[in-house]
Specification:
It is a single chain. By secondary structure, the chain is mainly α. The chain has a domain at 41-124. The protein is 67% helix and 4% strand. The chain contains eight helices and two strands. It has helices at 8-20, 38-44, 46-75, 80-123, 144-151, 161-166, 173-200, 204-207, and strands at residues 33-36, 127-130. The protein has a two-stranded parallel sheet with strand order 1-2. Helix 1 (8-20) packs antiparallel against helix 2 and helix 3 runs antiparallel to helix 4 (80-123). The longest helix has 44 residues, at 80-123.
């Protein structure tokens, strides 16, 4: 039996549903209320599709590693080193995919929130509520399509979590500047003693 990772889109949307249901059970007061299906915004908007495609690319690479190891195991089922490698790669894959999904979800949620804030102000709504937290509402309050259109103009560059963590370590510029500073100061230190005998060679100033 082959080990396979769960579908990215299902995991991402399940995380999103959980996030949508936290802290939103409030009754809104105000003359203008709108409702948005946040899950559909994340799923159908261009940034949402890009996020899922990004995660699927990472998952495909990891799945290939798992498949390669499992193919070797099928030819040598008693190879304990391969069995251990498969378990190690699988556990690492689970952890990495969890981190990547949280990273993508966090970026998307920030953009969705900002987009809805701008949409609400532009359209004159007092409050926008999540459809996931409402048992029933009039369909005319649903502005999901408008929010998706606004989201489509947003651009997000998704970067793997591992790459983001490695970036700060690759900046040794301050050390280079510090080592260069003493080297630049040395010529001035040599020039100062050379100037002293020159002024004393006159003898005029010292004699008077």
């Amino acid at each position: 039996m082959r080990i396979r990772l769960l579908a990215v889109s299902l995991l991402l949307l399940s995380l999103l549903c959980a996030a949508c249901q936290q802290g939103e059970n409030k009754t809104a007061s105000g003359p203008r209320i709108a409702v948005v299906d946040v899950v559909r915004v994340m799923r159908d908007s261009e940034p949402g599709k890009a996020g899922i495609k990004f995660l699927e690319g990472i998952q495909a690479d990891i799945q290939k590693q798992l498949d390669d190891i499992q193919a070797k195991l099928e030819k040598d089922r008693e190879n304990q080193a391969l069995q251990q490698q498969l378990q190690t790669v699988y556990m690492a894959a689970q952890q990495r995919m969890g981190a990547e999904q949280q990273n993508v979800l966090s970026q998307l949620q920030n953009v969705v929130q900002r987009t809805m804030d701008e949409f609400r102000k532009a359209q004159g709504y007092d409050v926008i509520m999540s459809a996931e937290t409402m048992a029933s509402f009039d369909a005319k309050l649903d502005v999901t399509n408008g929010v998706i259109e606004a989201m489509n103009s947003q651009k997000i560059t998704f970067v793997p979590v591992g790459d983001k963590a490695a970036t700060p370590a690759a900046v040794p510029a301050p050390a280079a500047e510090e080592s260069a500073a003493p080297a630049a100061a040395e010529p001035k230190a040599d020039a100062a003693p050379a100037a002293a005998p020159a002024s004393g060679a006159d003898g005029t100033g010292d004699a008077k």
